[in-house]
Every structure is written in C-alpha cells, then in structure tokens.
Amino acid sequence: xxxxxxxxxxxxRKVALLVFIAAFAPQAGAAARGGIKVLxxxxxxxxxxxxxxxxxxxxxxxEAIVLSAKAYAGPLGKCDVASVSETPSLKGSTYxxxxxxxxxxxxxxxxxxxxxxRSGDANQISVGPAFESLRNYQRCSESTPASK
Length: 148
What we know:
By secondary structure, the protein is α+β, with helices and mostly antiparallel strands. The protein is built from one helix and nine strands, in the order αβββββββββ. An eight-stranded antiparallel β-barrel has the order 2-3-4-5-6-7-8-9.
C-alpha cells in the first residue's frame, strides 16, 4: 500500500471536513434561521396547572399558572392567547405567547403581555415574560401528559 505524502493528507483532511460540513450544515442552518412557526394556540402538552419550584402544588397558590389552548391565568392575571410562536432549537422548541390580559381597573380595557414557555424535564417547564426572568414550574397533576 502506498504511503500518502503530506499534500495528499491535507487534501484528504479538507475533503473530510467539507463532507462533515455538508452533512451537518442543513440542520444547524435550520436551527439558526429559526424556522419560526405561528400557532393558533398553546400546544396541548403544556395545558394544565403548574406550580413554581419543585414543592407540592397547593390550592390557592397565587404563583401557580393555568394554561389552556387559548387562555392563561396566573400572576399576569386572566389572559386570552392572541398568538403563539414556536422557535425550534437544539434543546427543543421555545414558545412565545402574546397575551391580552384584563385590566383589573378597567373591565373593558385589555393590556398585552408576553409569555415564554420552554420545556424542561418530564412534567417541568420554564415560564416567564422574558428569558432573564424564566422560572421553573412543575405540573400539578400527574394524570395529565408530560410535556415534550
């Protein structure tokens, strides 16, 4: 078997690198481009009651949140879901919900709010109005399906 000279080794390394880049660039590019999808509602895997931290869920917990297809109830108030954006990432999708919340001082007036939802471990999610303020929540009922 013939030995490779230095020039041939460098050429083979370059070819191998180009093959590697060609194989993995489409997946990385799709994640980098975002591929943001607009959804009509919060995904059903996130529906249910969620409590902060890992402690047990308690009735009347003012920090608990309740998510459904088109509604949110929690520290931000009672809100309707106007739209939801799904952004894929290597760690799973991140959802951004645009909410219309009832203004407690004026029954007819609604304010807007944002809610970011990221899946965590089984039956856990991170939720907050901004990435800097995400908090961990756990599902209150084990009878509901685990989040993705």
